[in-house]
Request: fold
Amino acid sequence: MDFLNLKKPKNELTPAVGRILIAEPFLSDPNFARAVVLLCEHGEEGTVGFIVNRSTELMLDDLLPDLYASGLNIYQGGPVQMDTLHMMHTTPVELGGNEIFPGVYWGGSYEALQDMIAAGTYDPAQLRLFVGYSGWSPGQLEKEVEEGSWIITDLTPRLLFDTSPENVWKEAIRSLGDEYAYLANLPVNPQLN
Reply:
């Protein structure tokens, strides 16, 4: 769609672990409309990431009844394997995980999380849980980027942990600089204007 032929700067970055994908304003796929996806794996076997701006009505104890935690809601990471639960956090000493960006970790121990919850030492502002994930087969994401469906930029942990889900897409667009700023104010469906 290439932003409906809107004039925009060329996207110089390529997909890589720790980068985010920002959906172009008029991406029609309902799974990814106005989505911001954090990439956690990217290689010869494909790409895995998590939509960071789709909160759900689910809470942790809805999925794991033994793990009640106040203020710890669940995000929809993507349309793939909606029966899986994934963790993103900033506490590797306690939870473990793989560093995907300086200070941001993917994965970890749910037993350790249970211990942190029981002790009251977890910080819900530094932890995100996702049902499902977003995935692309080898070459698929690169093709979508070439078609103009995504803008790629580096993650800012503030977007992941400090920005409310409903503001993440606009903040991600604004973080790209003045040449992209106008995109943040485009309507979802310009035909309805």
